[in-house]
Design a protein that fits this description.
This protein is α+β, with helices and mostly antiparallel strands. The protein is about 45% helix and about 25% strand. The longest helix is centred in the middle third of the chain and has 22 residues. The protein is elongated.
């Protein structure tokens, strides 16, 4: 025969899991304490205990109002007259000098009604597992609404904010719209790690001038700052200081436009005004730095696809002869480091002395002089030169014949440079 659990056994089990159990008479506003693991002052009325417990700081201030409303006799009675489902509330309960998460549950007795208007109130400590649940929830919420690289608000957070304000006419709002200059070129010539660092560098600049909570990364190279209810003088000071900082760079890291609306208007109108200003600045940037235009990169992509046998492909700026590597398909790192980044005219001297055979050095220097290359390209789409290199046994290379090919860039301000070994 199965064991029958007695009422006493059931209560012992409950007492192990709950540190407070009360039986409350809703008609009389009275209660009987069945179990309490903390010091409890006896009250004639249940409602008096709730008010005093809250007033003395037994509940966290942020949860006090919800706790009092949850335990209102009239509300509890109204609920159970219509529905027998339990009521529950999570709140922070004082424990010594700190607060711990607790769960209060209220259930009606089996025959709840006018003849038996009693409910059972249980309080349990849920701090350990609920704190972990909250921590995970907050982490998940942060991950969903923040960019994984910069930790700024992401596009989803931006759209959520815009949606929340879509029907509101906003005033005293400052918007700064910015776009990183040359990110695609950096990714294609230096690799995505360098591109990621470029993004991080700009995010740091942005948060140096504006509070992080107002900054959004809305695309690969696109950032927006939105400051609602802002002081116009403060916003414009921040925006102007930042643009001045960027303009002092040899190559400004980003193009920036900003707008402050004094009178009420939809948020998207303010954003559009700032974006229009950004594109004006972007046009000025391309006028001053034509080799950063995407057309150069697109041309290189085509060239790379057609000429996969090239050891490397690079861009040379016609103005300052600065070299940007686009693709390296096996050129030793020692040579790549020598030719990339600096002035081609200067680096070719170092390269020639170190790697070109002595009897061919003088001709090599004449053939790859940038003025010579430019003249050769005036009447032709491509110019080729060949030379014999010294044996580089430390790099596993015997004496070889190398071919350098120069192509005119599509915008007239750059030269495309490709190399390969032909023997």
């Amino acid at each position: 025969m199965e064991d029958i659990v007695s009422f006493e056994d059931a209560m012992k089990l409950l007492k192990r899991n709950y540190f407070k159990i009360l039986k409350v008479n809703l008609d009389q506003d009275s209660h009987v304490c069945i179990e309490s693991k903390d010091d409890t002052v006896e009250y004639s009325k249940f409602s008096s205990w709730i008010i005093d417990f809250t007033k003395k700081g037994g509940v966290h201030p942020d949860d006090a109002q919800a706790f009092k409303e949850f335990n209102l006799i009239s509300s509890i009675k109204e609920h159970f007259e219509k529905d027998s489902t339990p009521l529950s509330l999570r709140y922070r309960r004082r424990s010594g000098d700190s607060y711990r998460w607790a769960l209060v549950e209220i259930l009606p007795v089996e025959n709840f009604g006018p003849a038996d208007p009693h409910v059972i109130l249980y309080v349990s400590d849920i701090h350990d597992y609920y704190s972990k649940e909250l921590e995970y929830k907050n982490h998940l919420e942060h991950t969903i609404h923040h960019d994984s690289l910069t930790d700024l608000n992401n596009f989803l957070a931006y759209k959520k904010m815009c949606t929340a304000n879509s029907s509101i006419m906003m005033s005293n709002t400052g918007v700064l719209f910015s776009d990183i200059n040359g990110l695609k070129l950096c990714n294609d010539t230096k690799g995505h790690d360098a591109g990621s660092q470029m993004i991080l560098d700009y995010a740091q600049i942005l948060t140096d001038f504006f509070p992080k909570d107002f900054c959004y990364r809305t695309g690969g190279d696109e950032f927006i700052v939105i400051m609602p209810d802002a002081d116009k003088t403060d916003f414009l000071f921040r925006a102007r200081q930042m643009t001045r900082y960027l303009s002092e760079m040899e190559v400004p890291l980003a193009s920036v436009g900003y707008w402050f609306c004094d009178t009420p208007e939809p948020l998207n109108h303010t954003v559009n005004r700032a974006e229009d200003m950004m594109y004006t600045e972007k046009t000025k940037f391309y006028m001053n730095h034509p080799d950063f235009k995407r057309s150069v990169v697109n041309e290189l992509e085509i060239l790379s696809g057609l000429c996969s046998e090239f050891t490397c492909i690079a861009i040379i700026n016609r103005t300052d002869y600065k070299t940007f590597f686009y693709r390296n398909n096996g050129l030793p790192e020692e040579i790549t480091l020598l030719l990339s980044g600096g002035n081609f005219q200067t680096n070719r001297v170092i390269f020639g002395r170190k790697y070109v055979r002595d009897d061919q050095y003088e001709q090599f220097m004449k053939d790859c002089d940038m003025e010579t290359v430019a003249k050769k390209l005036e009447g032709s789409k491509a110019y080729r030169m060949r030379f014999k290199s010294k044996p580089m046994l430390h790099m596993g290379m015997e004496e070889t014949t190398s071919e350098w090919i120069f192509f005119s860039g599509s915008n007239g301000n750059s030269i495309i440079f490709a190399t390969r070994q032909i023997i």
